[in-house]
Design a protein that fits this description.
Helices cover 87% and strands 0% of the residues. By secondary structure, the chain is an all-alpha fold.
């Protein structure tokens, strides 16, 4: 574009440097019109290429967005399942702790009685 601009400025400022190669008005008109048509076609194809590339990228982003959303839903479902399993584990541990507390308490009381009172070895082994 810079070269074309420089040539046009030189032609405007110094018309004697650029020879006039057209033999008549019709060939000058055809050259001008064909230049505009070529520019129009190039503009159309470039715009069409950019639009198609944009649509392709837009579709790709949409697919990635849907994929991320599906993964997010999967993670949320896994989190809910883990929370449910954790609650069940806590309930089970609570039940086990409660069931073990009574027998261990009885053993502890028995040992406390053994240490409080002087009982000979024969009575200790019998009880």
């Amino acid at each position: 574009m810079g070269v074309v601009l420089i040539i046009n400025v030189l032609e405007y400022l110094y018309p004697q440097l650029v020879p006039y190669t057209y033999t008549d008005r019709v060939s000058s008109f055809i050259d001008g019109v064909s230049a505009y048509i070529v520019v129009a076609f190039i503009s159309y194809f470039c715009t069409n290429y950019i639009r198609l590339s944009y649509e392709k990228e837009k579709q790709s982003v949409l697919e990635k967005s849907l994929s991320i959303e599906e993964k997010n839903l999967h993670i949320i479902n896994q989190n809910l399942e883990l929370e449910r399993l954790n609650a069940e584990k806590n309930k089970l541990m609570s039940i086990i702790a409660h069931d073990l507390r009574s027998p261990l308490g009885n053993i502890q009381h028995y040992l406390e009685l053994l240490t409080e009172y002087d009982i000979d070895a024969s009575q200790k082994s019998r009880n």
